[in-house]
Design goal:
alpha/beta; Rossmann fold; 6-stranded mixed beta sheet; globular; binds adenosine-5'-triphosphate; AAA+_ATPase; nucleotide-binding; ABC_transporter-like_CS; ATP binding
């Protein structure tokens, strides 16, 4: 269970999160909101990439700010930019690198690599230089590496931005079928339409929180009501 208690956050004098109170225990949680509304800042707090200016974030009762190392063993993170995540020269080495702390035998590592590659359509690229993959393939590799570690909680920040329609649906179907708790930040609203819970963030506050269809409808109305630009300019 992930809990935010009265979380505020400022970068310099800009307040980005303004009193977030959330208890997230559903298996699938979507986070949506306008550009710059604070979604990435919020989810980065779940594994200690950002520490709140005030308030607390806990995962299964563990305070992330005080025990980030412990929490990171349970919470895996997929970044929007796969280049920020891919660190090894080849595709299979990158997945193996993500498994380095798991004390697996060579045979188990190979089996997990094979399964991850097959799951995300990368089996033909096992020994391919990772930096020569297409942008979408890099995104698939980043997701494959993270899911291969079998984390208790998976947080994915815009995991499908570079994927074509077919791969987007396949990846979301796969992620949604995982046993682990899944939190996804996305602008692709149709992907969340049947999720049990979707939280809408606007200017650093939770403005809607409920079943996918209700939250998505609320957000569409919110977005259609204003273009967010200054009409006097
Ligand atoms: N490290 C940082 N230093 C300074 N300001 C930051 C930093 N990270 C984010 N911000 C600012 O915080 C605000 C919220 O950013 P955040 O990335 O959380 O928004 P978002 O809702 O994920 O946006 P998007 O949908 O565009 O990805 C933005 O105004 C951004 O410029």
């Amino acid at each position: 269970m992930i809990e935010f208690r009265d979380v505020h956050h400022s970068f310099g004098d800009r307040e980005v999160l303004r009193g977030i109170d959330l208890v997230l225990d559903e298996p699938r949680v979507g986070i949506i909101g306008a550009n710059g509304s604070g979604k990435s800042t919020l989810v980065r707090m779940i594994n200690g990439l950002v520490t709140p200016s005030s308030g607390t974030v806990t995962v299964d009762g563990i305070d992330v700010a005080r025990h980030a190392g412990r929490v990171r063993r349970q919470v895996a993170f997929v970044f929007p930019d796969p280049d920020a995540q891919i660190v090894m020269p080849t595709v299979s080495e990158d997945i193996a690198f993500s498994l380095r702390r798991h004390k697996l035998s060579r045979a188990e590592i190979d089996a997990r690599i094979d399964a991850a590659l097959a799951r995300f359509g990368l089996s033909d690229h096992r020994d391919h230089p990772a930096h020569l993959l297409s942008s979408g393939q890099k995104q698939l590799l980043a997701i494959a590496s993270v899911t291969a570690t079998d984390p208790a909680v998976l947080v994915a920040d815009e995991p499908t931005t570079m994927l074509d329609r077919r791969h987007t649906r396949a990846v979301m179907r796969h992620l949604a079928a995982l046993d682990q708790q899944l939190l996804v930040v996305t602008h692709q609203l149709e992907l969340l339409a049947d999720w049990e819970r979707v939280v809408v963030i606007e200017e650093g506050r939770v403005v809607a929180d409920g079943p996918g269809p209700d939250s998505v409808a609320f957000y569409r109305d919110l977005m259609d009501g204003t273009d967010g630009m200054d009409p006097t300019c």
